[in-house]
From TrEMBL:
One GO biological process term: regulation of DNA-templated transcription
Domain of life: Eukaryota
Keywords: DNA damage, DNA repair, Metal-binding, Nucleus, Transcription, Transcription regulation, Zinc, Zinc-finger
Annotated localization: Nucleus
Polar residues bias spans: 359-379
Region (Disordered): 287-379
Family: Belongs to the TFB4 family.
Subunit note: Component of the 7-subunit TFIIH core complex composed of XPB/SSL2, XPD/RAD3, SSL1, TFB1, TFB2, TFB4 and TFB5, which is active in NER. The core complex associates with the 3-subunit CTD-kinase module TFIIK composed of CCL1, KIN28 and TFB3 to form the 10-subunit holoenzyme (holo-TFIIH) active in transcription.
Protein name stated in the entry: General transcription and DNA repair factor IIH subunit TFB4
GO cellular component: transcription factor TFIIH core complex; transcription factor TFIIH holo complex
InterPro entries on file: TFIIH_Tfb4/GTF2H3, vWFA_dom_sf
GO molecular function, one term: zinc ion binding
Primary role: Component of the general transcription and DNA repair factor IIH (TFIIH) core complex, which is involved in general and transcription-coupled nucleotide excision repair (NER) of damaged DNA and, when complexed to TFIIK, in RNA transcription by RNA polymerase II. In NER, TFIIH acts by opening DNA around the lesion to allow the excision of the damaged oligonucleotide and its replacement by a new DNA fragment. In transcription, TFIIH has an essential role in transcription initiation.
């Protein structure tokens, strides 16, 4: 428990979302003051603790502060202030305001949250390499160089379906580096992908209920290092949403069709996988399509989007594909496969059940006609 710990913090800073959050009792200035006090506590907990702060802005991400950077010579420091605290506050505030002032008001780019997470993982990987590994990239990671690395994401942005693959790649990298990803959803709805990232890396996910108590949430839930969390009670998720995004339309789907070769997910049966170019039996595709009921008419017209009140509410995606229609087709096809009518199909899960979590179901599109795996080997 006396060992040092590294903390990387990703601040989600899209101006539009923070403008909405200010109307709900949490302006950006108050948020930064709470976060800076939390970062001070991390530095004060152990003299050898290291810290890195990354900012995610619309269309770009940057490193705001690193404890490895030298303290500026002409830093305005109050006589009663601790120099590392003053250097942290000065660097974070100055660089955030500089990036926000440089943003174009007409820009509609989403927040580069995934890019900031990727940079934080790359930073951890660079710090975790031993001196021998700096000259030999293939050298093994030395755990004694950087024990208990963790990443804290403070998010205010909703899920983007296009970020599913990048964030899953980040999760796999974090697992390889043994990095714990903690997530605090400060404002907005729950994020499906960040929930999965926290669950898969052994971190904590918290949706902020009282925004005026942000500092208390941070201190009690995210300040202890992973080693200390083994002996204390940390917040856990009652349920985890394991839904994925389809590779064809980038929509979050309750039920998807999975390629049996590369495991790409599609919202409807496809004759050829767009990822690995594997062809599937025509008869299986015909049976799957025939088992799908006709799309119900909606007052909004084809391709409209209906609001989701709960995970079971149907959603209309691009091209008028209805989530309930897909779910029914998969359920019917799975029943048919169980009776032996579809010998090449099987039902598999998109995620691992966790308590009362919602687990997405998927139907494999069968044995491929041609062995066209990405590496050229027979499957």
């Amino acid at each position: 428990m006396d060992a040092s710990s590294h903390l990387s913090v990703v601040l989600d800073l899209p101006p539009a979302q923070w403008h909405r959050a200010a109307h709900h009792g949490l302006p950006l200035s108050d948020f930064l003051s709470h976060v800076l006090v939390f970062l001070h506590a991390h530095i004060a907990a152990n003299a050898e603790n290291s810290l890195a702060v990354f900012g995610a802005f619309p269309g770009s991400s940057t490193l705001l502060y690193s404890s490895a950077d030298p303290v500026p010579e002409h830093l305005p420091i109050h006589p009663n202030s601790y120099p590392p605290f003053a250097a942290l506050d000065h660097a974070v505030n100055r660089r955030i305001h500089a990036h926000l002032d440089a943003l174009d008001d007409s820009s509609a780019d989403p927040s580069a949250l995934i890019a900031a997470i990727t940079k934080a993982l790359c930073y951890v990987n660079r710090l975790s390499l031993s001196p021998a590994a700096n000259t030999n990239p293939s050298a093994e990671r030395d755990p004694s160089v950087l024990p208990d690395p963790r990443l804290l994401v403070l998010s205010v942005s909703p899920d983007l379906a296009t970020s599913y693959i990048p964030i899953m790649n980040s999760v796999f990298s974090a697992q390889k580096l043994k990095v714990t990803i903690d997530v605090c959803q400060v404002f907005g709805p729950d994020t499906v992908f960040l929930q999965q990232a926290a669950h898969l890396t052994g971190g904590s996910y918290i949706h902020l209920e009282r925004r005026d108590a942000l500092l208390q949430y941070l201190i009690m839930a995210f300040l202890p290092s992973p080693a200390i969390r083994n002996v204390i009670a940390v917040p856990t998720q009652d349920k985890v949403d394991f839904r994925a995004a389809c590779f064809c339309h980038k929509n979050i789907v309750d039920v998807g069709f999975v390629c049996s070769v590369c495991l790409s997910i599609f919202c409807q049966p496809v004759p050829v996988c767009s990822t690995c170019r594997t062809k599937f039996p025509i008869k299986t595709l015909q049976r799957l399509n025939q088992s799908r009921p006709p799309l119900p008419s909606t007052p909004n017209g084809p391709g409209a989007t209906t609001p989701r009140s709960n995970p079971g509410t149907p959603r209309i995606g691009p091209g008028g594909t209805n989530g309930t229609a897909v779910a029914r087709s998969v359920s019917t096809s799975a029943t048919t496969a169980a009776s032996g009518e579809l010998p090449h199909s099987s039902t598999i899960g998109l995620g691992t059940p966790n308590g009362n979590g919602n687990v997405g179901r998927s139907l494999s599109m069968g044995t491929p006609v041609t062995n066209t795996s990405p590496n050229g080997t027979a499957r």
